[in-house]
Every structure is written in C-alpha cells, then in structure tokens.
Automatic annotation (TrEMBL):
This is Uncharacterized protein. It comes from Streptomyces aurantiogriseus. It comes from the Bacteria.
C-alpha cells in the first residue's frame, strides 16, 4: 500500500471510531451539551492566555456537523462524553486538513521507517502570500463596546435569563454595523453594494442590517459572560420568535417575511456550513454560538445563504459574474492601456466559441492581456479553498480552448473598432479571481492564475508590460525571510505523522510590480 493510501485508511478508521461514540445515543439535549462543553474549552484557553493553532470556529463547526449526521437517541450526553467528542473534534480539525490536502494533491506522503512524512507538494510561497494578503485585508481599528452595553452587562445578575432592553440591543447592533462596514471596506477587491439582490426579494443592505442585529446580540453574550467571569456561558438559547421580534424592532424597514427568510438561511442544515449558517436548532429553540458570528465575513455569509438554493442562486451567480467590470476598470487605469470586458468570440458560421471576459491592450507597444474571470464566493474553510482551485483549473481549460480557436483562425474576437487584431500583438493569458491565489498548478501551458487582491496590493502598475511580468513571474514571499516551513507531529495507528506547515515571519511582505525602466 502506498504511504498516502495508508494514511487515508488510518484517518478513515478514526472516523469509524467516531461514529461508534456513545455520545450519539443521546437525545434532544445533545447539541446544547456539546456546544456548552466547546464554549467551556474555549473559555479555559482564553482565561489561560493560550492561543490554539486550531480556530475555535472549526471546533464548533465540527461539533454541529457531527450532531446532525447522527440520529437522536433517548439517552443523556454527560460531561465525560461531551469532553471526548471535543477531544475528537480537536484531533479531526487537523486530520481533515491533512486528508483534504492529500486528496487534492497539495501534500505528498512518504514513508520514513514507521513514520509518515507529509510535505507540501505545491509552492509554499503562494500559500504564504495568501496569508499575508489576508492579514492586510483587515481594518486597523474596530469600535469598542459602548457605555450602555458595559453598564447593562455589569449590572445584570448572574442568574438572570432576561435579554437586553431595546436601547442596549440597538447600541450593540449599531456598533456591530460599524465593525461590518470597517471589515467590508478593508477588502482591496471591493464589496457587494447594498442593492445586490440575494434572491426572494432580499437585498444585501437588508441582510447586512439584520446580521448586525444578530452579531450585536452575540457580542452581548460574550460581554455578559466576561463580566460574570463565566465564559462557558456565552451561548444564547432563545425562542425563534423572540429573535424575530427583536430584529423587527431593530430593523423596522425590513419585512417580517425577509427576516424569516434570512433566519432560515442562517439555520444549520445538513449540507450547509456552520461558518455561514451559524444558528442551531435545539427543539423549539435556537442556539446562538458567538464564536461563529463574525463581522469579518458578512458578504460571504450573505452569498453562501443565497447559494443554498440552486434556483435562487442562478441570478445571484450571474450578477457576481458582472463584477468582471472591476477588472476592466483596473486595467483601464494603467497608462496607455484600453480595456474591455465581455468580448464575444465567434466562429465562421456565426456560432459563439466563447467570450474574452477581460482583455487589455497597449496598442503602442503591441502588448495584450486576456483573463478568464471567475468570481467565486470567498473561501472560509479548507473545502471551499479546494472548490475555488477547481474553478481556476476549469477556467484555465476553458480559456485554453478559446485561445486555441483564436490562434488557429477558426474563431475571431469581436474587438472594438480601432483596436489591433490579436495576431498583431503579443498576448498573455491568465485566470483572475477576486481574493484567493491558486496554489494548484494549472495543466494548460502559458495560462497564469492571479487575483485582483494580489495585483491591487502591488500598487499602481507603471505599464502593461509590468503586469505581464507579474503574471509570469509573480513577486512572492521569500522562504527564510518572510516565512518558514515548520512541522507539527501527530499520532495515527502505529505511525508518527510529521506534517509541513507555514510560519509567517515578522518581516512584512507585500507584492511589488517589477521596475522595467
């Protein structure tokens, strides 16, 4: 058996052991017991000043996902069982990352005696670049809790189960809205306009104010728990109608129909991600998990909830595709460059061979760049990262086919009047995404993936030639200066598994266009 197959088989055995765990024989109170134990784990780490290498959102997400995989029994989920499930979750958060990387080809596995060595198979500098770019797309400052919120949290009796009065909830929602705006504006590639349609009549503007209300309530749960020194009590356990009524008060311009619709989209179901559907049903109540409610991913949450229904997402996806215009505007700002999006490519019989999503031309220097644009929803989990890479590799294949028809003369691009023909200029071809750089090498020669965030962070390009050079030879972090390749060790079966990981250095990095003068 090959080392990679052996490792995957061991992970499969661990998953089988998880399925047999006694916690899954528990009844309706199981999910609350598990989430409460997760909150307790998190509280202990915060109190101790420990920073885990596993995001707490991942642990909550795994617990919620597992709970929904197994039918309810009629027993109880005691403290020991809940503790064991959380231990499984902590372990599996690492194993699932490794499993995904091996299956996608991002990790190679070799045997060293009884040990298994898991190494990066792709260019680690690309992943380091993505990590730097993500860290830079953050607001410099977020608003603190208001005085009204602090006073209420400090005065609230520990044993009280009453929610905040309207004026406190309003102050919290307003603060959350400021945080949401700060996060959205910090994204170099831009954010969705308030008018963006999310299906069923719901707009991005409405979704944002409703999410601000929910996030404000989640923040208050954290604040109260901290004030009472009981961080394990951060969960909110409330009737759905209570949440509907609170949001109706906070957002009087949003119809109850749209409030109900968004709450349903935000409620976890099998097949959804708890990162973007963070409300959990427990009998007649909803559990609100503050670690899963974050202001940094509002656009992602809104789009993921729209994507849950394929019939609803068709138009949403079409409108996302129109954001290729943002690439056109970026190229058009380069000195001496003209750009156009949505250029048709036609065969001799008039049939459509495809489109050139964005093409930019420097007529004087006989240079051109054509990008196939994909605007997937930003990835917040490892699985979603893989889906974006699938989009990129598929787009490269698609563009390669169109390029082949253009170069063979079986199809012609309908370029604007006055532009040179493609045969008259030196063309460079690529695939553009909004945020994520593609780690997986594409199979089509001469097609270069990049991202709008990466190019914007590089500053203003002095010429189209500098963009061409950046596509072909991207400026990336240097190993040993900007990042290091480190390892962590796990045990599986009879093996010790040593896995590569990336450590970001203190030295700042940002891409720069080459100076070709």
């Amino acid at each position: 058996m090959k080392p990679a197959e052996e490792l995957l088989e061991e992970i499969s055995r661990k998953r089988s052991a998880l399925r047999r765990h006694r916690a899954w024989s528990a009844g309706e109170g199981r999910i609350y017991a598990l989430l409460r134990k997760a909150a307790e784990f998190r509280a202990r780490e915060i109190d101790a000043g420990i920073q885990t290498d596993v995001p707490w959102e991942t642990l909550f997400e795994l617990v919620i996902e597992w709970h929904h995989q197994f039918p309810l029994g009629d027993g109880d989920c005691d403290e020991e069982a809940a503790f064991e499930v959380l231990t499984f979750a902590l372990e599996f958060s690492r194993w699932e990352q490794i499993e995904h990387g091996v299956r996608m080809g991002g990790y190679s596995v070799k045997r060293r005696g009884r040990d298994l060595r898991v190494r990066h198979a792709w260019d680690a500098a690309l992943e380091a670049a993505d990590m730097y770019l993500e860290s830079r797309a953050r607001p410099r400052e977020l608003p603190p809790f208001s005085e009204a919120e602090r006073r209420w949290a400090q005065a609230r009796p520990v044993e009280s189960r009453e929610g905040p009065p309207f004026e406190v909830l309003k102050a919290s929602a307003d603060r959350a809205m400021v945080s949401i705006d700060a996060w959205r504006k910090s994204a170099p590639e831009g954010h969705l306009p308030d008018s963006f349609a999310l299906g069923n009549g719901l707009t991005m503007g409405e979704a944002t104010v409703l999410l601000a209300g929910i996030m404000g309530l989640a923040d208050l749960c954290e604040l109260v728990a901290r004030s009472a020194a009981r961080l394990e009590s951060t969960l909110a356990h409330l009737d759905r109608q209570v949440m509907v009524d609170a949001l109706s008060q906070l957002c009087p311009d949003v119809s109850t129909t749209h409030i109900d619709d968004l709450l349903e989209r935000l409620t976890y179901r099998v097949g959804r991600s708890a990162r973007t559907a963070p409300l959990v049903e427990s009998g007649e109540k909803i559990i609100l998990c503050p670690p899963l409610i974050t202001s940094r991913a509002v656009d992602v949450i809104a789009l993921r909830t729209a994507a849950q229904d394929a019939s609803r997402f068709g138009r949403v996806g079409h409108n996302l595709g129109k954001r290729a215009k943002e690439w056109e505007d970026w190229f058009a700002a380069i000195p001496g460059v003209v750009a156009r999006s949505g250029v048709k490519v036609l065969r001799a019989d008039g049939r459509r061979a495809g489109d050139l999503d964005v093409i930019a031309v420097d007529a004087e220097n006989k240079l051109g760049v054509c990008l196939e644009i994909k605007w997937p929803i930003d990835a917040v989990t490892r699985r979603e990262v893989g889906k974006v890479e699938n989009w990129v590799t598929s787009a490269a294949d698609q563009l390669g086919r169109v390029r082949g028809e253009l170069e063979s003369g079986t199809a012609v691009a309908e370029l604007p009047d006055g532009w040179p023909q493609l045969s008259e200029i030196e063309m460079t071809w690529g695939v553009g995404t909004p945020q994520q750089l593609c780690l997986r090498p594409v199979s089509v020669q001469g097609i270069y993936p990049t991202s709008l965030r990466y190019l914007i962070e590089a500053g203003d390009p002095p010429s189209l030639r500098s963009v061409v050079e950046m596509l072909k030879r991207p400026d990336l972090p240097k190993r040993g200066l900007h990042f290091s390749e480190e390892t962590f060790t796990l045990r599986v079966g009879h093996h010790t598994v040593v896995v590569d990981t990336i450590g970001i250095r203190q030295f700042g990095w940002r891409p720069r266009f080459p100076d070709l003068t």
